[in-house]
Amino acid sequence: MRTFFLSFLMLGLGSLLAACGSHSQWGVATSPVSLEELKAVAPKGQLAGNAQPQLYRVSLDLDPREQRFSGNVSIAIKLETAATGIWMHGDDLNVTRVTVTSGGESQPATWNEVLSTGVVRVGFPRRLKPGYLTLDIEYDAAFDANLAGLFRVDEKGEAYALAKSESIQARRFLPSFDEPGFKAPFDMQFTVPAGMVAIANTPEISREDIGAGKELITFARTRPLSTYLLSVAVGNFDKVDAGVLPPNSVRAKAIPLTGYARKGKGAEMDYILKMTPELVQTFEESLQQPYPYEKLDIVAAPQWPSGATELAAAITYRESRILANENSGPAFLRGLKSIHAHEMAHMWFGDLVTPPWWDGLWLKEGFATWGEAMALSQMEPTEGHDVQAVADAIGAMRLDSLASVRAIQEPILRNEDIRNAYDSITYNKSLGVINMADSYFRPDVFRPALGEYIARFADGVADSDDFFHVIGKTVGSPDLTDAFDSFVLQQGVPVVSADLQCTSLGAKVALSQARYRPLGSSIEPGTRWTIPVCIAWQDGAESGRTCTMLKTREKTLALSLPEGACPGVIHPNAGGVGYYRFTLGAHEWDALRGSFATMPETGVLTALDSAIAAFEAGELDAVRLLDILDAGAEQSGNQAANLALDYYGDLLERVKGTPAEAAAQARAGAVVAKIRSVLEADGGDAEMSARLDRFAAIKLNDEEVRVRLMASAETYLDTQTGLSSDEYFPALSVALADGGPEMMDRVLMATDEIDDPVFDQSVVNALGTVKAAEGSARVLTLIESAELGPRETYTLAMMQMANPETEEATWTWLKANMPAFLNSIPTQWRRRAPRLGQYFCDTARIAELDDLFAEYGAQAEGYERALAETKESIRLCAALNEATQRDLEAAFKISAD
């Protein structure tokens, strides 16, 4: 990996040219090269780095009311070795002029878009010697229609243009070196319709009336940035002045804070803007590193392909994630806080210090995900953000249980595979590994080491080896580096077996490690990790924990109890912060279940996940599993209850239509009733109550709850009162199921009448649950027309595939219409299309998936990993059903006796 740094004080363009000296930089004339010859040698992934951008000067003419835009870019480049041309990036750009200048001499150059991924060859008329050159490019292009690159959207009569640059989409609107490792300052100018708001990465320093109803806006020079961090936004945004981030003990200067939302929605930025100063200060104090940019803009985009993107100093969110109003429920606000903390963490992890290539994506996304709970737990220590972090890490373990899963870091050799790194392994497994290190080595040691890493590589790039070196040296423990290395570079979830052994000499636990293998898996044994393991124990009123670094296949750990004492309970993942599962004997499982009431919720979460995993590996019987699920749901907090209910939902689907169905419904209903009684005794919990209503109405078909939700939906559609945003989805799902075609008309009309992006998204999700034949047929017409939007079209298809009642009709339609479907969804989502089959549990479907993507895979570049993981999931589902179905049905019947 190359590692280089760029100074704030960049040489001006004239200085770069003067540095070339008086001797000619130009050599012999070059010969023409055919496009086929170029394709044969074009870099399919990372560029070689022979040409290093030093400074960009960008001028864009942008009118979001039009269909096209134009631009000019001048790039100062350092050429490391003599060359007849350079490789760079540009995708579907109409380039009208390219000029290369070196040594005071300018020559026309050629522009060839060689690969479909936007790899470009700029050819020189003569060989250039090493040194400095300037590339000037004039071009125009169409605004994208599918939320990629520089796209335009119309919302409530207003047009907006926004740039989604990550990961390799800046090349769609800017000829550039579109890789994270190429960091350089940018001088940006926009020509826009007079009076329109324009947003870039730095403050606006001048606005000039140039006639013809247009203004020329100039922005301050940026710090060195990667192209994926560029902000370009133009439109009639509401601008909300939120004052400044005041100076503090870490940062000496005030930072202007501004919110932007589409016209008429500025007031709904209030919640996120008010929490921002404390959030920024929390990161600054934790890392002992100041916020690095000249301003901080929070932008609510009318449409955005992801939840948010960390555009430097101009963080941009899909508006449905951050616009808050009087109907915003507690779950929505929790999500708002989390996504805001995630993006704020990126200002240090990713923006200021950047991985040189996409295989190091975890260094920004993993730390940003970890930063959510790290910061929010300090701001709101009793709100369960630490529990959410453990739940998120557990969520990654299902994907990490596949043989076909990728490691946190592994080579990315093709541009088509870059987006495959944006998965729960990079985000949530990395979170779990970092959380484990933070806990084991202690926050007061680990977090200052992170600050040292940030300071060391500020404004530059750093790969995993750089990180491991700095963090290990600062903490002073080679175990830290070994642990990170083993988890980052290897696939899979460790499972730690814990065998409690008590003698007159004391208590000890025999530990062993292996890679988790569910029933039907092709995973080979042999993987070994360096695992920070902590065992919690309880002996009557006494309790404690004992920790070790498990480096070998087996190890015996003595517990710190009085001589001769034997604990009644052990938990092999104390506090639940270790990224591993565990197994116990039957007696130890029963004892652990009995202690849930006195255990921290994080411990209950990991126990529930480990029990589910043991059942799916054939190592825990269904009776004991159900008892553990019930205890976890009834005696702990929201996240544990959510995990238990989610798995109950899966089990209910498995026994649907069998003699055990009624017993399963009754048992799940009893669990819901018990949770409700606990909530009532504790004074109520609106967030969990909404979750229980959703489960009862949709999974249990609870008539009382459905009648109540139907009435609430009717009231909301009439008055926009009576529902919080957390209740939109269950209420609308019931209304669409029970209200017939007239209700679907009414709900769809409401999306035009009610200006609430969270409501709009809930409508899409609720439409995805429609099961009746007539309603499902209408949902298919919405998918076919794509009239609800690119993201929404994909969501509808995925949710209809998740419904057993609508799966076949939806799959038949998808097979017949796959090219049109792929063209209607966000460009960067097309690689996900094989995951539409993830709910299949019949291995006969695998051939259908293979055939479909053999025919249409070229339209979904990078689909191969999603296809492999989906096929494996189908095989595992079939194997699980075959091995455990009889046991599961019997367990539910026993509970009814």
UniProtKB/TrEMBL annotation:
<dbReference type="GO" id="GO:0043171">
    <property type="term" value="P:peptide catabolic process"/>
</dbReference>
<dbReference type="InterPro" id="IPR045357">
    <property type="entry name" value="Aminopeptidase_N-like_N"/>
</dbReference>
<dbReference type="Pfam" id="PF11838">
    <property type="entry name" value="ERAP1_C"/>
</dbReference>
<feature type="binding site">
    <location>
        <position position="365"/>
    </location>
    <ligand>
        <name>Zn(2+)</name>
    </ligand>
</feature>
<keyword id="KW-0645">Protease</keyword>
<dbReference type="Pfam" id="PF17900">
    <property type="entry name" value="Peptidase_M1_N"/>
</dbReference>
<keyword id="KW-0479">Metal-binding</keyword>
<keyword id="KW-0031">Aminopeptidase</keyword>
<comment type="similarity">
    <text>Belongs to the peptidase M1 family.</text>
</comment>
<protein>
    <recommendedName>
        <fullName>Aminopeptidase</fullName>
        <ecNumber>3.4.11.-</ecNumber>
    </recommendedName>
</protein>
<keyword id="KW-0378">Hydrolase</keyword>
<dbReference type="InterPro" id="IPR027268">
    <property type="entry name" value="Peptidase_M4/M1_CTD_sf"/>
</dbReference>
<feature type="active site" description="Proton acceptor">
    <location>
        <position position="343"/>
    </location>
</feature>
<dbReference type="Pfam" id="PF01433">
    <property type="entry name" value="Peptidase_M1"/>
</dbReference>
<dbReference type="InterPro" id="IPR042097">
    <property type="entry name" value="Aminopeptidase_N-like_N_sf"/>
</dbReference>
<keyword id="KW-0862">Zinc</keyword>
<dbReference type="GO" id="GO:0005615">
    <property type="term" value="C:extracellular space"/>
</dbReference>
<dbReference type="GO" id="GO:0006508">
    <property type="term" value="P:proteolysis"/>
</dbReference>
<dbReference type="GO" id="GO:0005737">
    <property type="term" value="C:cytoplasm"/>
</dbReference>
<dbReference type="GO" id="GO:0016020">
    <property type="term" value="C:membrane"/>
</dbReference>
<dbReference type="GO" id="GO:0016285">
    <property type="term" value="F:alanyl aminopeptidase activity"/>
</dbReference>
<feature type="binding site">
    <location>
        <position position="342"/>
    </location>
    <ligand>
        <name>Zn(2+)</name>
    </ligand>
</feature>
<dbReference type="GO" id="GO:0008270">
    <property type="term" value="F:zinc ion binding"/>
</dbReference>
<feature type="domain" description="Aminopeptidase N-like N-terminal">
    <location>
        <begin position="52"/>
        <end position="229"/>
    </location>
</feature>
<dbReference type="InterPro" id="IPR024571">
    <property type="entry name" value="ERAP1-like_C_dom"/>
</dbReference>
<dbReference type="InterPro" id="IPR034016">
    <property type="entry name" value="M1_APN-typ"/>
</dbReference>
<dbReference type="InterPro" id="IPR001930">
    <property type="entry name" value="Peptidase_M1"/>
</dbReference>
<feature type="site" description="Transition state stabilizer">
    <location>
        <position position="427"/>
    </location>
</feature>
<feature type="domain" description="Peptidase M1 membrane alanine aminopeptidase">
    <location>
        <begin position="272"/>
        <end position="481"/>
    </location>
</feature>
<feature type="domain" description="ERAP1-like C-terminal">
    <location>
        <begin position="570"/>
        <end position="875"/>
    </location>
</feature>
<dbReference type="InterPro" id="IPR014782">
    <property type="entry name" value="Peptidase_M1_dom"/>
</dbReference>
<dbReference type="InterPro" id="IPR050344">
    <property type="entry name" value="Peptidase_M1_aminopeptidases"/>
</dbReference>
<feature type="binding site">
    <location>
        <position position="346"/>
    </location>
    <ligand>
        <name>Zn(2+)</name>
    </ligand>
</feature>
<keyword id="KW-0482">Metalloprotease</keyword>
<dbReference type="GO" id="GO:0042277">
    <property type="term" value="F:peptide binding"/>
</dbReference>
<dbReference type="GO" id="GO:0070006">
    <property type="term" value="F:metalloaminopeptidase activity"/>
</dbReference>
